[in-house]
Automatic annotation (TrEMBL):
Residues 7-236 form the ABC transporter domain. Coiled coil: none annotated. This is ABC transporter ATP-binding protein. Keywords: ATP-binding, Nucleotide-binding, Transport. Pfam families: ABC_tran (PF00005). The keyword Ribosomal protein does not apply.
């Protein structure tokens, strides 16, 4: 295992008794202290992968090393380094928030530390709910308790499985503020999310998984450069019903009911073709009032990747 890897996954596979292949030959190295976003549609294998690393799901094949410990041969020490925020809400309905955190911390052999737990609850806006039974809390507050429980034993690796799905804006903001602080302290964070703008904003690297196979792993900025496209939108001086035949060979589309032309180009190519485009528009007698460029979002890149043949 690389010394700078928090998690090393090699040849991981999971086939259920029904014959369903949830994961197929997944290999992945996650660096210490990074935020790694795992993207994929429902059923892609994200939760199965997290379940295996956290010791909840037994793999059919392959090996996982977490913080230097084999998750099968040295389960207890491996699991003690990991915090998990699952998608499901808390079930210990009759416990108080404070009791749940004390239990979670003690479960991993950590000494009682009221000051640490108080800070954790304050960071998650839960301090005034510390004596409340979990059954009395709202869905958003229960989600906060899940996060607090995952962090109670001070893990070095934190899994966030759709942590902000269906929660309010305030919790999402608190969540990402907490994540940023954890990262500064060297905690490795792996998240799955359907809010792709969150991955685009927070992640250092991105993996895309579909049908149990890892399609790619790339630094976010490199991925944007490699797969991103730029579009030049020209607001036309006069409305157009169709693109003239003289321009049919260009990657042009009509937009805004014929009031704009959109030209798509590779921003990393040797030539963008914009100079040639403007010249040919002039030759065709097509005028425009304004122009601006836009870059592909990560969501557009993600959708295009999933459309690619398997």
């Amino acid at each position: 295992m690389s010394t700078d890897a928090a998690i090393e996954i090699t040849g991981l596979g999971k086939t259920y008794d029904t014959g369903h292949v949830a994961l197929s030959n997944v290999s992945l190295s996650i660096r210490r202290g990074e935020i790694f976003a795992l993207l994929g549609p429902n059923g892609a294998g994200k939760t199965t992968l997290i379940g295996i690393v956290c010791g909840i799901v037994r793999p059919s094949e392959g090996r996982v090393i977490a913080d230097g410990f084999d998750i099968r041969r040295d389960y207890r020490r491996a699991r003690a380094t990991i915090g998990l925020v699952p998608q499901e809400l808390a079930t210990e309905t009759f416990e108080t928030v404070w009791a749940a955190l004390r239990f979670s911390r003690g479960l991993f052999g950590k000494p009682h530390d009221p000051a640490f737990l108080e800070k954790l609850l304050r960071d998650l806006s839960l301090w005034d709910k510390r004596d409340a039974k979990i059954m009395t809390l709202s869905g958003g507050m229960k989600r906060r308790v899940l996060i607090a429980k995952a962090l109670a034993h001070e893990p070095r690796i934190l899994f966030l499985d759709e942590p902000t799905a269906g929660v309010d804006v305030e919790l999402r903001r608190d969540m990402w503020r907490l994540v940023a602080g954890l990262r500064e302290r060297g905690v490795t964070i792996i998240l799955t999310t359907h809010y792709i703008e969150e991955a685009e904003q927070m992640a250092d690297r991105i993996g895309v998984i579909n049908h149990g196979k890892l399609l790619l792993v790339e630094d976010k900025d490199t991925l944007m450069r490699k797969l991103g496209r730029k579009q030049l939108t020209l607001s036309l001086a006069e409305r157009m019903d169709a693109i003239p035949e003289a321009l049919a060979d260009l990657p042009l589309e009509l937009a805004r009911d014929g009031e704009a032309l959109v030209y798509t180009f590779d921003s990393q190519g040797e030539r963008t073709g914009i100079a040639s485009l403007l010249r040919r528009l002039q030759e065709a007698g097509i005028g425009f009032r304004d122009l601006h460029t836009e870059e592909s979002s990560l969501e557009e890149i993600f959708v295009n990747l999933l459309k690619a043949p398997r």
